[in-house]
Amino acid sequence: MKICVLMKQVPDKDSSIKISMDNLTIDESILSFATNESDTYALEEALQIKEKTDGEVVVCTFGKDSAIQVVKDALAKGADRAIFINNHGKENLDILSIGKIISKKLLEEKFDLILSGLQSDDDGNAQLGLIISELLHMSHGSLVMGTDIDGDQAIKVKRELESGWFQWSKLDLPASISIQSGINTPRYASLKGIMAMKKKTIDKFSIDDLDCSNINSKINLEKIYIPEK
Questions:
Q1: Nearest Cα to 210, choosing from 114, 97, 65, 68?
Q2: Secondary structure class of 177 (helix, strand, coil)
Q3: Which helix (H) or strand (E) holds 191?
Q4: What is the pLDDT of residues 147-200, one digit of tens each?
Q5: What is the torsion angle, in degrees rounded to the nearest 10, for the CA atoms of residue 131, residue 136, residue 142 and residue 144?
Q6: Dihedral (CA of 152, 139, 123, 213) sign
Q7: Whole-structure pTM over 0.85, yes or no?
Q8: Fewer CB in 10 Å around end: N or C, the chain?
Q9: Strand order across the beta sheet in which 166-172 lies
C-alpha cells in the first residue's frame, strides 16, 4: 500500500508572537518552529499501517525553506521518502490554492491512502484533507480515531461524533483521511532512524515546477494585530 502523509511546520506553542513593523507578518527572528501536532499522529498511523501491509510511507510538506526539517524528522521516524514543495513567492495562499498545488504532485504518485492531521495549530482551517479528496476524486473520512485495512480495496475508519459517540465507516480506496489527535502514541526518532534518514530521498519542487504559477489566492491579508480587550 502506498501512503502519503501531509505534514506542516508551525510556530512552537511556547514561542512568543511579535508582529513585524509592517503589520503584515510575524517576526520570525524570535520564533521556534515544530511539526504540527495532529500531523504527528497522522504519521504514526501511517507507519503502523505500513508495518501491517508492508507498504510505503511518503511525507509531503508545503512551506518555506525551514520546513524541510519537518520531512527530515518524519524520515528519521520511519517514513521511506519525502516530497518538499517550496512556497517561495506564494506565502499567503488560501487553503484551496494550497490544496490545488499539493494535488498536482500527488496526482502523479497515485497514492492508495492520504493521511493528514485534522487541522493546523496556526491557521486551523481543517479543510485540506477534504479539499484534496475532492480534487483527486477520493473518498474521505474526517475526525478519524481508528483505522482498519479491509483488503486491497477498502479501509474501515472509526469516526468521532458528538457526545462521546463513534461510528465505523467503510471507505473505498483510494481515500483521504483526516486524523484526530490522540488516535495513537507518536514514536520518537531512534538513533538508527536518524542515521538512516541521511540516505533517504527528498524530492524538492517549486510552485513553478508543478506548473502552478497561475494559481492565485482569493483572499488578501491587510493587517495583523493584537485583539483589543
A1: 97
A2: strand
A3: helix 191-197
A4: 998 877 899 999 998 888 999 999 999 999 999 999 999 999 999 999 999 999
A5: -140
A6: positive
A7: yes
A8: C
A9: 166-172, 154-160, 139-150, 175-179, 113-117, 2-7, 56-63, 81-86, 202-206
